[in-house]
Amino acid sequence: MTGTLTGISDVRGVASRHSRPRADPTGFTLVELLVVIAIIATLIGLLLPAVQSARESARRTQCANNLRQVSLATHGYESAKKFLVPAFLGDNSLISQAGGYNSWPTWAALILPYMEEKSIADLWDLKRVVQAQAPAAYQTPVKMYSCPARPPPVLSENDFATPGGTTSDYAASFGTLITPVSDTTFSQANGAIVPAVPTIGPADAKGPVLLSSRHQVPMGKVKDGTSKTAMFAEKWISPTDPRGKNGDASVYSGIRNTQRRMMGFSAPENGSRKILSPKYAVSDVPISIAGSYFGGSHPGLCMFVFVDGHVQAVSEATAIEVLTALATRDGGEALDSNAF
Fold first, then answer.
1. What's the predicted TM-score (pTM) here?
2. Domain that holds residue 66
3. Which of 107, 110, 196, 290 would you label with 74, given CA atoms 20 to 30 Å apart?
């Protein structure tokens, strides 16, 4: 066909325009992308506190369960021995001022058979000091001794051995004051968990031998009430202290502040110990020995277990008078259960 179509000047141009696919936009504009990013950031900002709160709640629950297991083991010990577990067996005579820090077995070793840790317990010879034990006895971590809100346990430094023993985030409630060196029977220790008075025999090739220990606190001596007398709690650690040193040394160490803490008013020391927050500065500690305080890694509170076995969070704002009553086993204080 040689003719042309009337009224259409360019058939090929028309055909090509009609056959070309329509170009639809497939991407985001910059404005749309910025809006999406802003929405996502807002959602993250709203969800993050809830996620952090859930994580803290889970950590606090696990911490409470750890203390409950410690209390159950302590009750198992009491059923067998008819006394609450001592803070430690023996005395302080083997603690070298030069840094030896040897110790007789502490509460952390004594309750091992009652908390499903028989394999570790079997490694201990309770008549020997910690330095004479097999390293696996004092170096093996015990899960229930560590709060999940704190860094994992490590082996202590500058302690009774190099490397030293495993750490713990919990300490025994010793009462209101640090007993003086002259108090060799620890008669001034007025808490629920205090040392046993030792009888030590002559040393042999392995060192000194503990012949016996006179326990001091049967359940009947907790006269202030088992539900109102603290037994164990989280220990405060200075945020500037490295893990495994000073007040965070081994729970088996002769550095006593690693295994026991005090709270409330101390007349001999003319001062008071409150519950410290994780961020509390050493320079602000009312009584100079910083490693003698309770205080957890949970915002605003510290987890305690009481002699009757119940676990309770105690606020950092709790009054000194209340803390004094909770620390003493027979102080005779009148204490309302709603006060803490």
1. 0.83
2. 48-339
3. 290
The one-digit pLDDT tens for each residue of the chain (340 residues) are 444 444 444 545 544 444 555 555 566 687 777 888 888 888 777 776 665 667 888 999 999 999 999 999 999 999 999 999 999 998 887 776 455 788 999 999 999 999 989 999 999 999 999 999 999 999 999 999 999 999 999 999 999 999 999 999 999 999 999 888 888 889 899 999 999 999 999 989 888 899 999 999 999 999 999 999 999 999 999 888 889 988 899 999 999 989 999 999 998 888 899 999 888 877 778 776 778 999 988 999 999 999 999 999 999 999 999 999 999 999 888 777 666 7
Output the six-digit token pair for 100.
């030896």
Dig out the tokens for 261 from the structure.
């803490």
Does any domain span residue 35?
A: no
In a domain, 16, yes or no: no
Separation of first and last alpha carbons in the chain = 105
* In-domain check, residue 314: yes
Structure tokens at 177: 């004051």
155 to 89, 93, 253: CA distances (angstroms)? 22, 24, 11
Query: Considering its fold, how many domains does the chain have in total?
Result: 1
